[in-house]
Amino acid sequence: MERLSLSDGAVFELEHCNxxxxxxxxxxxxxxxxxxxxSPRGRLSLVEAAWRGEIEAGQGLADAxxxxxxxxxxxxxxxxxxxxxxxxxxxxxxxxxxxPAFTVRHETVPMLLDLVRQRRRFRRLVRLGQWGRxxxxxRRFKAAAALLPGPRPRLAxxxxxPAPSAPRPRIWFFTTCVMDTAYREANDAAVALLxxxxxxxIVEPDQGCCGAxxxxxxxxxxxxxxxxxxxARWRHLPDDTWIVLHAGGCGAMLAEYDYLLRDDPxxxxxxxxxxxxxxxxxxxxxxxxxxxxxxxxxxxxxxxxSCHLVNGLRQGxxxxxxLQNVPGDTFVPVPGQDRCCGSAGVYNLNEPGMAQRILxxxxxxxxxxxxxxxxxxxxxxxxxxxxxxxxxxxxxxVWHLAEYLYDRWTGEVTEAAR
Length: 418
What we know:
Layout: H1 8-16, H2 28-33, H3 40-52, H4 59-66, H5 73-77, H6 84-98, H7 109-115, H8 119-132, H9 139-146, E1 170-173, H10 177-182, H11 184-196, E2 200-202, H12 212-216, H13 220-234, E3 242-245, H14 248-255, H15 257-260, H16 267-275, E4 278-280, H17 281-287, E5 290-294, E6 300-304, H18 307-311, H19 317-323, E7 330-331, H20 347-350, H21 352-368, E8 373-376, H22 379-392, E9 397-400, H23 401-408, E10 409-415
Parallel strand pairs: 1-2, 1-3, 3-4, 6-7, 6-8, 8-9
Antiparallel strand pairs: 5-10
Helix pairs in contact: 1-6, 11-23, 13-16, 21-22
C-alpha cells in the first residue's frame, strides 16, 4: 500500500496533536453531522493513518478532506497550537496528484481556477453571468451563476482631506482577483478611506492572483508560481511598506507565503521578509494616523467575519471594533459572527449540500436579529451571504466593510489618539 506523502512540517503537526477534542465544538461540519470523521481530530487521524500506510489514501480519505471547510477554527481552539491547515493542504495536494477529481469535484472549478488568472476575461464572464442567470443555461453553470453578486451600493464621490504634513505610512494595495472582478467598488472605497486616514496608497494595475484557491484545491505548484510572481512585485519596495487588502482569505495566504516557499532558497527569504507586513483593510485603517468620522443611519448592522481573517491572519478584532463605533447605527453581534459561512473558496461548488446547511444557520440569525446591513470582509463570504439573503427573500443588504464605512463617512477626519 502506497503511503501518503507529507513534508516533515506536516508530520510534525500530526504528531503534535494529542487528540484532546477541544477542536470539536469549533468545527462547523462536526456540529452539523456529529461524526468524528467530519471533525479535525478525525481527519488528522485519517491523514496520519494514510501517511503510515495503515489505510488507503483513496476515495474515503478524499471524501473526509473534501467535506472540511478549511476554516481553521480548530487552530484557534487548539491548546497545543496544531496548524491543521498545513496538514489539510498538503494532504489535498498529495491526493490531487493521484487523481484531480479527489479535490476538484465540480466541473466548473477547473475553469474558475484558470479564470482568476485572466481578470479581463473573468470580468466579462461575471457580467454575462449576472445578466443571464435568470435565463436557461447548462446546469453545470447554474450553481456558479447563482452565487454572483447583485447591484452594488452607489458610492458618491467625496472630497479628499488634505494629506498629512508628516511622512505617511506607505501601502501597496492588493486588489485580489475576485474583489477586483466582482466587487471593484468595495476596493475603490477601501483605497479612498485608507488615503483619507493618512496613508500613501499604491494601486498597481494588472495584479496577479494570490493562489489561495489553488492551494486549497491541491494545486500547490500553481500556488507557488503565483506567490513568486507577487513577491517579485514587492521585492524592491521599502521595508516599511504594508501589503493591505480587503479579502481575509487572500490575506491569510499572503502572510503564509514563507511556509509555502519554505524549500525555495531564492524566494523563501523574500516571503519571510513580507509575512509580517500583511494587513487586512480594517487593521490598517485602525493603525493609520487619522480616523474617518462616521455617521450612522439608524440601522442594525451585523458582521460575517472572514474565518481566515480570524483564524489565519488573526486580525478579526479590528472590524468588530470599528463597527462598534459608528454612531447612529446599532452593531448586532450575532452568534455565528466568526464561524464560517460555508463559502470557503470553492467549497460551495464542491460540497453544495453542506455549504447550504451552514449558510442557513447564519441566515436564520440575521433574520432573527432583523439585520438591515450584513457586513462581510471577504469576497467569497460576500457571494455566499448575498445568495443566502436572496434565497430567503430577506430585505437585508450584504455590503463589504469598506462599502459600508465609505457610505457612513462624513468626509471628515480626526487625528487618531496615541
